[in-house]
Amino acid sequence: MNRLSKWVVLWGAFFFAGSAAAKDPIKVGAILSVTGPAANLGGPEARTLQMLADEANKKGGLSGHPIEILLKDSGGSPEKAISLAKKLIEEDKVFAIIGPSTSGESLKIKGLAEEGKTLLLSCAAAESIVKPVGKWVFKTPQNDAHAARKILDHIKQAGLTKIGLVSSNTGFGKAGKEQVEKVAKEMGIEIVANEVYDKEATDLTAVATKLKAAGVQAFINWSIEPAQAIVLKNARQIGLNVPIYQSHGFGNIQYVKAAGPAAEGVIFPAGRLIVAESLPAGHPQKALLMKYKKDYEAKFKEDVSTFGGHAYDAFTLLGKIIEKAGTDREKARDALEGLQGFVGTAGIFNFSAQDHNGLQADAFEMLTVKQGKFVVLQEGAAKKEAPAQKK
Fold this sequence. Notes:
Layout: H1 3-15, E1 26-32, H2 39-58, E2 67-73, H3 78-91, E3 96-98, H4 103-115, E4 119-122, E5 137-139, H5 144-157, E6 162-168, H6 171-187, E7 190-197, H7 205-213, E8 218-222, H8 227-237, E9 244-246, H9 253-259, E10 267-270, H10 286-300, H11 306-325, H12 329-337, E11 342-343, E12 348-349, E13 365-370, E14 373-376, H13 379-389
Parallel strand pairs: 1-2, 1-3, 3-4, 4-5, 6-7, 6-8, 8-9
Antiparallel strand pairs: 10-13, 11-12, 13-14
């Protein structure tokens, strides 16, 4: 167990020691990619859970129950996630599992959650995690299908018809690739170059060169790993000066910092957390987003990311259903499936028996990178610029 795991678990175990009024603790497992290629996802998720567990226990726990987070670092490995999930379900008897961070891991363990009748609140984006719907499996990030459509809508409106698609060899990359291919075909947009790269690649000049040779008018880069920043750098280094679209897996400013000037002008869909300040005062998410952002950045001295937000939503959803239904697993599961109008960082959740994600395409904003920062894309300006860049 790493240092963070010990801290979170021991906090829940000892904060209420000797308190006769305290109810039984609730054990919640968390399988997150704190290290490895997906650390830009799992790190903020783990730190967010640390912060929320601290806050909850100081206030008396979740509905009076001390909360114990059993944090497990999967390193982004689907195989490791399987063994961790088995231990959490079979030995630790956790009430629920938050995570994993990645789609590949989540797809590998969703069956275990079903068999063990244990709530799984995945922090990964692939729509296939919740389609077909499993009784015990839910997820908090927006769907990759909605992200693909938002990107391709923008490409079509810009008058571009021949694009490239590059994706990482991960569960997230594979699922996104399939969604882009499907939606592009529906819209009459031709994918003239379609390349898959290794998630741990350090030089992707060959991939960028293939895109340039194919004469792409723009390209989509679908990944969650640091390699996505290398694609940007290598593309600009060889003079591929076309619009670049990223998936919602780009929502951590660390990727912008890694790509440097090559990230300037990149367009991507994301939740509103990373542009919370620019939301109008009456926006239903603004107060929550600003509080989470302020608390997280003050505590950890780093910019908030959409990925930490996925863990925030999972934890607060658990708090809500425990408040409504107590700690009976079946009743809590039913409460989650029936939850409507729940304001989270990713959007406003409306779950149902047919929808275990609860978010629609309007949970996304189209963003861009301007002077090294995330900003809301000004549609008119973007459309004027795109044709000039499509040579």
